[in-house]
């Protein structure tokens, strides 16, 4: 690939776009090969439907906080959603999708006084969302489901965190080709344990349940009980998973 003028910012941006396009094509080919490998594994273990690939989905933002105090809207401007298959021990990535509002050329044109809107408002726009549009895990799930459905892949179980809506997006996208298909959302162990701890601590017990003279003393004992219940349940789940393997 010719390097070109790397001193000018526009030259660096052009070169970066060319590299990004080649990397995207390379990743697409690689992920399709991984899907074929998982299907072959399903056939090897004599799965009922080799096309079913269960995934764990999560998104990563380019900000440590979702909200912001100085202006309304989300603090993040970029999000990447990853679908990791859970059929094999290799944990391949069959699909990945990116949402972002970043477009250097659009910002440069607006700085020059031109009225342009991203995405699609000018040639070479790199943004995939308007500036004021929210980053949505549901939309990322739909994109992941659509991409996998076109490769004849079905998803039965989708593991997400507590507030993720990726599973709903995957289900809606798969229903376009398979109207009767449903996706069951599973909670990942970390968020499941945290939710269990919170529910146990907020549960209503009788006043004589915990020793202590003050509410603070009883709360400390109640917290110990909640942590013990969480630890016991986590140990049981880990043991069952180990025995299943």
Which key features would you list for this structure?
2 domains; alpha/beta; 245 residues; five-stranded mixed sheet
Fold blueprint:
Layout lengths: L8 H36 L10 E7 L16 E8 L9 E6 L3 H8 L25 H13 L7 E4 L5 H12 L6 E4 L1 H14 L12 H30 L1
Parallel strand pairs: 1-4, 4-5
Antiparallel strand pairs: 1-2, 2-3
Helix pairs in contact: 3-4, 5-6
Summed up, the domain count is 2
The number of distinct β-strands equals 5
State the major sheet.
Answer: 5 strands, mixed
Alpha carbon gap, first and last residue: 47 Å
Number of discrete helical segments: 6
Mean pLDDT: 83
The percent range for helix content is 40-55%
Helical/strand content category: alpha/beta
The percent range for strand residues is 5-15%
Shape assignment: flat
Order of helices and strands: HEEEHHEHEHH
**What is the topology, as strand order, of the major beta sheet?**
3-2-1-4-5
The Rg value, from CA coordinates, equals: 24 Å
Low-confidence residue ranges: none
